[in-house]
Amino acid sequence: MENIDVMVLRAIAKWRSSGQRALLATVIRTWGSSPRPVGSIMALCETGAVVGSVSGGCIEDDLIDRYTKAYAVITPSAATSKLSGLTKPLANELPIGPPISVKYGITADEAHRFGLPCGGTLELLLEFDPQASSLQDLIHVLEQGHLIQRRVSLKSGEVRLLPCESPAELSVDEEHLTNTFGPEYRMLLIGAGQMAEYLATMAKFNGFAVTVCDPRDEYSAAWSVPGVSLSKAMPDDMVKNFKPDRRSCVIALSHDPKLDDLALLEALNSEAFYVGAIGSRRNNLARKDRLLEHFDVSAENIARLKGPIGLYIGSKTPAEIAVSIMAEVLAVKNDVPIAKEHEVMHAKNIRAH
Questions:
Q1: Cα 321 to Cα 5, 188, 239, 351, distances in angstroms
Q2: Which of 288, 218, 206 is nearest to 252 (CA)?
Q3: Integer CA distances (angstroms), 292 to 126, 168, 213, 303, in order
Q4: Distance from C-alpha of 102 to C-alpha of 44, rounded to nearest angstrom
Q5: What is the CATH number of domain 185-352?
Q6: Is residue 80 very low, low, confident or very high in pLDDT (cuts 50, 70, 90)?
Q7: How many other C-beta atoms can be found within 10 angstroms of the C-beta atom of residue 100?
Q8: For the purposes of burial, counting CB atoms within 10 Å of the CB of 209, is it exposed (0-12), middle (13-18) or buried (19 or more)?
Q9: Measured between alpha carbons, how far is residue 75 from residues 71, 80, 86, 190, 285 in Å?
Q10: SS3 assignment, position 70
C-alpha cells in the first residue's frame, strides 16, 4: 500500500486534471486529544469521494454534506415544478476563492457529534480547487525520493514548492501554511524466507516501500509478495546501493552470519532510523561480539543494533513475530519510548529466572 499522503495527492491531482472540483483539507491545529495528527491531509471530490482522513469519519461526513453533490436534496418548491420537467436537485457546492479554516469540537456537544475524544478540538485548512499542475509537480518530487515543502498563501491560495534538507513540523502563521512532505519510508529486508513475507506485507500496509535481498536461489525463487522489490545481490552491496537515510530501516532475517553481518555493518554506518536482526538472545550477543572484535565498529554504533528484535508479546509463530517487529519499527519511527519490560531481551531474561 502506498504512503497515505501520496495516495491523497494522486487522487486529488487526478480529479483536478479531469476537470472535477475538489478540496484539500489539512489538520493545522489540535487541542487535547485528536484522531489524526497535525499535518494529516484528506482530499474530497465534488462527487463525495474521499481519500485520506482527518478524523474517525464524522468530520469527513460533515465536509461531504457541506461541500459536495453527494447529499443533494429536492426542496418543496423544486418538487412542485417537477411536473414541468424543470426540477434540479439543489446540491451543496465547493466555494471559490482562498483557503478557509474551520474548527470542530469547540463545545462538548460538538465534540460528541463529530466523534472527537473528550476535550478534543481540531482546526482544518480547506483549499478549494488546488491546481493540478502544482499537485503533479509535488508528486513527481516525492517519487524521486526528495523532501519538499508545500507553502500555501492563506490570502490567495497560491502554492509554492520549496526544497528542504530535513523533515519539519507543519507551521502556520497569518500569511502561510507550510507542510513538509517526504518520500516514502523504506524497509530493506535481508533474507526472503517466510518471516520476510509476513513482515513485508505488514510494512506495505503501513506505507513502507519494501525491498528484499537474498542471493540464495532456494529462497529468492519462491518469493511471492507483490509490490516488493527483490534483489539477488550480496546484502552488503545491496545496503550500499540502497543508501539508507533517516526514513529507512534495515532488518536482517536470514539467520546466516555470512549474509547478515556485513549488511548490518554497512547499515550501522548509515542514517537508518532502525537497524535490527532476528535471532535468539545468545545469537544476538554473539553477533555484537563478532562485530566489535573483527570490524571497526564503535560501541555507539553497536548500541544502535536492535536484537532480539520486536516487542515482547509472547509471539511464537512467524506471523506473530512479524507483528512484534513491525510494532517496534513503528514505535522507533514515531519516536515513542519503549519500556524496558517490553524489550524481548529483558522480558525473556526475567522469565528465565
A1: 28, 17, 24, 18
A2: 288
A3: 54, 35, 25, 11
A4: 15
A5: 3.40.50.720
A6: very low
A7: 14
A8: buried
A9: 12, 9, 13, 63, 74
A10: helix
Residue type, 58: C
Q: Which three cell numbers stand for residue 141?
A: 518530487
pLDDT band at 342 (very low <50, low <70, confident <90, very high): confident
In the chain, which ranges are continuous DSSP H helix? Answer: 4-17, 58-67, 76-80, 108-113, 132-143, 194-205, 217-220, 235-242, 257-268, 281-294, 299-304, 318-333, 344-352
Provide the residue ranges of all domains of the chain, joining segments of one domain with +: 4-181, 185-352
Specify the pTM: 0.71
C-alpha cell at 108: 462538548
For residues 114 and 105, the answer to whether their CB atoms sit within 8 Å is yes
d(CA 52, CA 10): 11
Q: What single letter denotes the amino acid at residue 288? A: K
In the predicted structure, residue 346 carries a pLDDT above the cut 90: no
How far apart, in whole angstroms, are the C-alpha atoms of residue 260 and residue 277?
Answer: 8
pLDDT digits 0-9 by tens, 273-304 = 999 999 888 888 888 888 888 887 888 888 89
The Cβ of residue 217 has, within 10 Å, a number of other Cβ atoms equal to 9
